[in-house]
Design a protein that fits this description.
Elements (H helix, E strand, L loop, with lengths): L4 E3 L5 H11 L4 E3 L3 E5 L12 E4 L2 H7 L11 E4 L1 H9 L5 E4 L3 H9 L5 E7 L11 E12 L13 E4 L2 H10 L7 E4 L2 H7 L5 E4 L5 H9 L4
Parallel strand pairs: 1-2, 1-9, 4-5, 4-7, 5-6, 7-8, 9-10, 10-11
Antiparallel strand pairs: 3-8
Length: 220
């Protein structure tokens, strides 16, 4: 019997992952652990920055019309999905790095930008920017859904963990670790899930396509 995937990431990413899974011939169930909530924020003047940094497409959606004030800035984005969201929002100069913040900082340092405005979530990725000046402004929060979704049948699925935070939250809720298979988007996400799972796998690259590919190997 082939196990379906269990997708726990927030919408609209969860449905995007489900569509990508279906294109691969994989069945998927969507039960988000978090919901993305836009925050009230005060946009800093664009003149104080050389570039805009985005590490999630959620930031593009949450920032909304205020992004127009930064239209003249080049954008550095983590991953192709975030870069695509920036382009769809009207940014012309968008550089997409790997789904890795360390690699993105290296990409920025190779250019001329030194003062970055990072529009992000309350729970955001961390890395040493080196000589770069990074001003982080939270524009959204990914809040745990209460009560959480039904997870009693998690062991009948391959569970996809898209972040360390999701891994920690799922691990606290999982009813039967010893019978549950998990696929993690990164080694950090796998470490956050802790030990004791029936089977584990880590994506070759920290992106959704690689996560689905490695999860497919656990479905049999």
């Amino acid at each position: 019997m082939t196990r379906p995937l269990l997708i726990l990431r927030p919408e609209p990413g969860a449905s995007a992952s489900a569509r990508a899974a279906a294109a691969l011939g994989l069945a998927a169930t969507v039960r988000p652990l978090f919901e993305v909530v836009p925050l009230a924020w005060q946009p800093p003047p664009a003149a104080g920055f050389d570039a805009l940094m985005l590490t999630s497409a959620n930031a593009v959606r949450a920032a909304g019309a205020a992004l127009a004030g930064y239209a003249a800035l080049p954008v550095y984005a983590v991953g192709p999905a975030t870069a695509a969201a920036a382009r769809a929002a009207g940014f012309a100069a968008v550089t997409a790095g790997d789904d890795d913040l360390v690699a993105l900082f290296a990409l920025v340092r190779a250019g001329s930008a030194r003062r970055l405005l990072h529009l992000c979530g309350v729970d955001r990725r961390q890395a040493d920017p080196g000589a770069l000046s990074v001003t982080a402004v939270p524009v959204y929060d990914a809040r745990a859904i209460d009560p959480p979704p039904r997870l009693a049948d998690a062991a009948a699925h391959v569970v996809l963990l898209h972040s360390p935070r999701a891994a920690r939250h799922f691990a606290a809720l999982a009813p039967d670790r010893a019978a549950t298979r998990i696929a993690a988007i990164s080694t950090a996400a796998l470490a956050a899930a802790g030990p004791g799972w029936a089977a584990t796998a880590v994506a070759a690259r920290p992106d959704d396509a690689s996560l689905l590919a490695v999860a497919a190997g656990l479905t049999a």
